[in-house]
Amino acid sequence: MAVRKHRRVGDNPLVRRTLIGIAVGLTVLLLFMPLVLIFVQAFAEGWAGYVSNILNEYTLHAIGLTLVVALLTVPLNMVFGVFLAWLVTRFRFPGRKLLTTLIDIPFAVSPVVAGLLFLLLYGSNGWVGQWLGEYDIQLMFSWPGIVMVTVFVTCPFVARELIPLMQQQGREEEEAGVVLGASGWQLFRRVTFPNIRWALLYGVILTNARAVGEFGAVSVVSGNIRGETNTLPLQVELLYQDYNTVGAFAASSLLAGIALITLVVKAIVEWRQSRN
Amino acid sequence: MATTDVSERPSKRLSAPATKRVLPGFGLSLGISLFFISLVLLLPISGLFIRAAGMGWEQFWFVITDPRVVASYKVTALAALAASLFNCVFGLLMAWVLVRYEFPGKRLLDAIMDLPFALPTAVAGITLATLFAENGWYGQYLADLGIEVAFTPLGIVVAMAFTSVPFVVRTVQPVLEEMAPEDEEAAMSLGASDMTVFRKILFPTLWPAVVTGGALSFARSLGEYGAVIFIAGNSPYISEVISLMIFVRLEEYDFPAASAIAAVVMTVSLLLLLAINVWQGRYLKRLHGG
């Protein structure tokens, strides 16, 4: 771009430096330092202490359960998110707007309320829970309940990433594919998927971050049984309340690591999209 | 996050009108979406309202107006308001700095803005509680100033502000990026001061985005639980948030009370979500000259 001759608001070097200074300072205090603290505390007893904290029997079990929950939740919500995004961006039908509003509900609802919803329905006193109880099936206070609330709180992420992008891209390319005789699956694999794969990846990563980190909703339906229904965030709470601060932060460091990976993936996705 | 349809305007389509569905998969995607939404969202939510409705108006009113519960409404609403006001100012500043200036480390600053969404709330909670504890990195200096954050309502504000940082930044950023520079440059060349131009030209375009982000941040803060409970102290009437109140009633096995309070919270959340969506729809239409 040619040298800009026009002055704009905030071009004054003093104003510019002051604003950048305040912004960087506040961000360091509010966001960087908490991240630093997690790792400083986690390694307070050295590397060996860190390893032994992670290898704690209950922490290991919590890691395993958290992985299972994520492995069941993420693919389910990915499939749902793609179908919903396809539906609301490729077709016009009455109720389309309502559908996109409904999908935002999990974002607006307190996680504790989300947990309660499932406890009321599937708990031993709930309509469905009572009926399942007759067949000795218990969903609440065990892992299926944890998966169910996690599906609830994470279901909007993939659709929310895909809808604006697919709307912007329009349906011309896919319509051309149909004219050329592509089947539905070919259309998705050859035309749609290559266009949305980065946004889809980011949606999946976000779903995963929230799935491994959900606390409030899971804590309502888990029953907090050590070595049985404790996910990693619940284990963090338990260790912290046992005054095992280093152990709590060691477990937290794993979750913080996942959060950092999420941020890196987002940066890559945005870089990719800006190049297109 | 209530992202609204930007490309709603009918585009010049060369192909057949939408009523003749050219693309495959309408039935399948409609079926899957409706089945999923009914099972995962609508069934549990209607279950809550039916449960709450079944308890009788008098008992319902008695439970939701219990003084301890009323105190928790106030604490939650005030703390959420303070947190979202902070985020309006902080978010506007961050969006401005990230869009208007170039400086080393800008990419990193931009990336870390999303940390509060990626970091589990329980981790945020114990981290903030440790930072602001009496002997913590921040707490020790604040104690010298006579400011207590941990285990006070101020702690709730800090936790809510942290978890909702990205909302205002991410709603204001795109608006600032798309803003045409002509009016601003004309006013500046006519000799208006920075402050005047910001107030008269920039702010009128920016404020709807700030309000949207602030409202999203407020809605999120109202329901925040994980980050709050570690730093709040959770003393009845003083520093209990509404989500904790529901949890307390559940631990007392008082399911009707928990459901009644949850029904109130759910109603407020849904109304807020609706209001934000309607507001966003209007302001986006104006922004894109629809």
UniProtKB/TrEMBL annotation, chain A:
Q: Which InterPro entries match?
A: CysW_permease (IPR011866), MetI-like (IPR000515), MetI-like_sf (IPR035906), Sulph_transpt2 (IPR005667)
List, alphabetically, the PANTHER family matched.
Answer: SULFATE TRANSPORT SYSTEM PERMEASE PROTEIN, SULFATE TRANSPORT SYSTEM PERMEASE PROTEIN CYSW
**Pfam families this protein is in?**
BPD_transp_1
Domain of life here? Answer: Bacteria
What are the GO MF terms of this UniProt record? ABC-type sulfate transporter activity
| Stated name of the protein | Sulfate transport system permease protein CysW
Subunit comment for this entry? Answer: The complex is composed of two ATP-binding proteins (CysA), two transmembrane proteins (CysT and CysW) and a solute-binding protein (CysP).
Q: Which residues form the ABC transmembrane type-1 domain?
A: 63-267
Q: Which organism is it from?
A: Marinobacter flavimaris
Gene transcribed to yield this protein = cysW
Alphabetical GO CC annotations of the entry are:
plasma membrane
Chain ranges passing through the membrane: 20-43, 63-86, 98-121, 141-159, 199-225, 245-269
Recorded hits in CDD domains, A to Z, give: TM_PBP2
Q: Which UniProt keywords apply?
A: Cell inner membrane, Cell membrane, Membrane, Sulfate transport, Transmembrane, Transmembrane helix, Transport
Residues making up the signal peptide according to the UniProt record: none
Which coarse location class applies to the principal site listed for this UniProt protein? membrane
Describe its function: Part of the ABC transporter complex CysAWTP (TC 3.A.1.6.1) involved in sulfate/thiosulfate import. Probably responsible for the translocation of the substrate across the membrane.
From TrEMBL, chain B:
Keyword list (alphabetical) reads: Membrane, Sulfate transport, Transmembrane, Transmembrane helix, Transport
Tell me which GO cellular component terms the UniProt record holds. plasma membrane
Q: What is its main location?
A: membrane
Where is this chain's protein located in or outside the cell?
Answer: Cell membrane
What does the record say about its membrane topology? Multi-pass membrane protein
Q: Mark the transmembrane ranges.
A: 22-50, 70-99, 111-133, 145-169, 201-219, 225-248, 260-279
Which Gene Ontology molecular-function terms are recorded?
Answer: ABC-type sulfate transporter activity
The record's section on Gene3D superfamilies has: MetI-like
The residues covered by the ABC transmembrane type-1 domain are 73-276
Pfam hit, one: BPD_transp_1
InterPro entries, per database record: CysT_permease, MetI-like, MetI-like_sf, Sulph_transpt2
State what this protein does.
Part of the ABC transporter complex (TC 3.A.1.6.1) involved in sulfate/thiosulfate import. Part of the ABC transporter complex CysAWTP (TC 3.A.1.6.1) involved in sulfate/thiosulfate import. Probably responsible for the translocation of the substrate across the membrane.
Q: Spell out the subunit comment.
A: The complex is composed of two ATP-binding proteins (CysA), two transmembrane proteins (CysT and CysW) and a solute-binding protein (CysP).
- Family of this protein: Belongs to the binding-protein-dependent transport system permease family. CysTW subfamily.
Record-linked PANTHER family? SULFATE TRANSPORT SYSTEM PERMEASE PROTEIN, SULFATE TRANSPORT SYSTEM PERMEASE PROTEIN CYST
Q: From the Swiss-Prot or TrEMBL record, give the protein name.
A: Sulfate transport system permease protein CysT
Its lineage opens with:
Bacteria, Pseudomonadati, Pseudomonadota, Gammaproteobacteria, Pseudomonadales
